Amino acid sequence: MAGLEENGPEPTTSCADPRGDPFLHTRFAIPARPATFLRRERLVRHLDQALRTPLTVVSGAAGAGKTLLAADWAAREDRSVAWLTNDAAAQGCGMFWAYFLQALSASGVPPPAEVGSPADASRVDQTLLTRLAAGLSDRDRPVIVVLDEYDRVTAPEIAEQLEFVLHHAGRGMRLILVTRTEPLLPLHRYRAVGDMTEIRAAELAFTPEEATALLELHGLRVPVSAARSLVERTRGWAAGLRLCALAAQESPDPETYLKEFEVDRTTVADFLLAEVLKRQTPEAQDLLLRVSVLDRFGPELANALTGRTDAESVLAGLHRENAFVEYLGHDRYRLHPLFGEILHAHLRMRSPGLEPDLHRRAATWLRDSGSLAETLGHGAAAGDWEFTAGALVDDLAIGQLFTGLRSDHLAELFSGMGPEATSPATDLVRAARELARSNLDHGLAHLRHAERSLAEEDRTPAGESPPGLAAARLSHALLEALAGRLTGSPARAETAAETAAELQQEVPAQLLDAHPELAALLSTHLGSTRLWAGSYEDARAALSTAVACSGGASTALPREESLGHLALIDYLNGWPGKAERKALAAVTETERFSLREESGSGIELLVLAAVAVDRNELDRAQAFLDAAADSHHAMRDPVMRAGRAIATARLLLARGETHAALEAAEPAVSADVASPWSEAHKALAASAVHLAEGRPETAAELLQGVPGDQPACVVGAARAQLAAGRPAEALDLLDRVRPEGGTGAERRTGPAVTVRASLVRAEAADRAGDSATARRLVAHALHEARRERLRRPFLEAGPWIRPLLGTVPLRGLAEGWLTPGPPPCAAPRAHPGDQPPPPVVEELSGREHDVLERLAQMMSTEEIAADLYVSVNTVKTHLKSVYRKLSVNRRHDAVHRARELRLL
């Protein structure tokens, strides 16, 4: 794998992490050892075994000397070592793997471009991990990867993903975990086969002889007995020894001080406050206490919190003095975590009430510097919700509540905003949060409040309007378009879109360029509403605009939704193949950016279900419907509800469950305007039920009022008329339906409609005794249906068609896809009713294969979880995914299907 060779080409890696921030290169640097560092050869020799085992764990308490040991060992190696100091694990899987890949690049062994990089800080796609593991497994020399501070990785899914890469990388990677806690990995497996090197707390502890040598490096010469007493008191804790040595240097009686030193958190805190903080100048003490509310900071931000201008020199001095201030590069600093925590607690005790003011100052400074995420975090910590909501709206970033990238984070951030916060921005944020969850009543109420507030600000004298008013009004227009979509109100959405187009001329171009999701969301909402109104071509224009939007991950979700809606248009027009291709493209649109499946409406899954019904792949259709239901999609608009009703009713009809189909076709779709296609397909389903139960007159009456621009319903009405004994009326109706090549609405009619129309004509000819015409029409239908694998029209046609399909000219057209073909000589004879199994939609992941193998062994969910060392909920999640991919909904069927496909 050329991209993973030490001297390979320059990597095509991103210069920014999934949040858009530059990678912090200090996180890839092997930490420098201080002048007082003591190299302990016994540990170095033990760590050398890391080159012979896939996994090495260096585990111990904070300050046990883990990092310095690994850094000293890594710096002496004659090969590249990829070093990553974990800091972003709390941000999610995507951030962890983005930094992991960047660490490989920084060490000179970059992954190839096809591996990619996560765009969502909270997710990573399994495909990326598979490609990475495959690339590593092809290496002649293993990559050495050190993950420092791995205890910060607390998400089980990250540990599971890391174990997957480690397992499948084989001899291509040597992984060293430096951690305070037990890693969430199946360590017993590696121990059992001798594939793990372990250095634990007991081994990291200093011996009396080593403690004596360490104290000598600090200029302290004490007898071994004094060192032994110190080791007993500190249990050999490296940081305690060093802290004690620093303090003893200032003591007139070092030996006595060492005997009295107590190692507990309070003592260490007292020591740090007394011997580090209080030794600084008053200005430095004030700065340290105030910046303790920050994760990272530069001199300018520190100055904003202190009100002075000396932060640059103070911070540089503190760093030089090793006063627990770490330099991150790019003029950025952070406090040592333990020191920062102690300072933060001391700040609250020493200056009650100051912390909110510091957060407010930080938020104000960061808003001017352009760091929106940090601005919002500090604004929320200050409890200044008018400011925080105003920053989000003024930046035109309210659309991020709907993109799936930062939606959950922003929703959680504003969850603490109480009713006392009143401004147009707070009302807009409240409306956005509620509408994002399809909570119409609350969302629309907040939207009305925002509209009134904005109207009042519009009436302010010229030159006195707030500077962010245009952005607020544009944000309001976006939410109005969404409200029009959710309420099924085309006029509302059209008005909002027109208003948005005008307001975009008033908003700074750089804001619009920075937030392409806004235009994509607007087009998606407008297209969905037009589709609901039955304006297919206008809907297609708006949805195609959204699909064409740039912006990468930020517009992936509206692109997915728009593709799903375009797929529904194709399905309604009778083009199942086109619909399926667009729906599958919609699924992959967000998958390649590792976005959550439940972020959008999931309309593409419903389309896939409906297409599967037309192909008589009923288990597959059920799997898609279950996937759509289980994903808890947030955007539950009328189009989605009607789409689910159509797919569910058709599936139940195919299964012969007529009463349930009738109920499913009558969903509680609340909308301001009735949808012509939704009403038509509701009538079509009801008509099919009555026809199946032998009531052709009732079936025909139900479709009499359906407009002629719904070809599927026209064909359904013709079928009902024929069943009622009125072939002339049936043929008159069918004359309205023409295949592609006609004019106007007729041009959009696809084979799912025309095949059914041909079969109704064929049945009429067969009843009239014109068998030649009937065979010709059935042959034409078979030709059209075969390309699309349309089986349901022939199964719905009734018993009259069976003799025709058995005739020589037609049997060849039907064999192999509609009826069983001749079996191979060595194959067992197939049953007449068997249908070819549906293809697997996606390949199973490695973990899904593991679960499937244990299913075949008749293991319970709890037994699988115990055997794989994962939670029961994790196993259930894998099972759902396996069922969906294999188009089944039961354990036995999954195993049977997997054996058919030779997956077991």
From TrEMBL:
<dbReference type="InterPro" id="IPR059106">
    <property type="entry name" value="WHD_MalT"/>
</dbReference>
<keyword id="KW-0804">Transcription</keyword>
<dbReference type="Pfam" id="PF14559">
    <property type="entry name" value="TPR_19"/>
</dbReference>
<dbReference type="InterPro" id="IPR000792">
    <property type="entry name" value="Tscrpt_reg_LuxR_C"/>
</dbReference>
<dbReference type="InterPro" id="IPR027417">
    <property type="entry name" value="P-loop_NTPase"/>
</dbReference>
<dbReference type="Pfam" id="PF00196">
    <property type="entry name" value="GerE"/>
</dbReference>
<dbReference type="Pfam" id="PF13191">
    <property type="entry name" value="AAA_16"/>
</dbReference>
<dbReference type="InterPro" id="IPR011990">
    <property type="entry name" value="TPR-like_helical_dom_sf"/>
</dbReference>
<feature type="region of interest" description="Disordered">
    <location>
        <begin position="1"/>
        <end position="20"/>
    </location>
</feature>
<dbReference type="InterPro" id="IPR041664">
    <property type="entry name" value="AAA_16"/>
</dbReference>
<keyword id="KW-0805">Transcription regulation</keyword>
<dbReference type="InterPro" id="IPR036388">
    <property type="entry name" value="WH-like_DNA-bd_sf"/>
</dbReference>
<protein>
    <submittedName>
        <fullName>LuxR C-terminal-related transcriptional regulator</fullName>
    </submittedName>
</protein>
<feature type="domain" description="HTH luxR-type">
    <location>
        <begin position="837"/>
        <end position="902"/>
    </location>
</feature>
<dbReference type="Pfam" id="PF25873">
    <property type="entry name" value="WHD_MalT"/>
</dbReference>
<dbReference type="InterPro" id="IPR016032">
    <property type="entry name" value="Sig_transdc_resp-reg_C-effctor"/>
</dbReference>
<keyword id="KW-0238">DNA-binding</keyword>
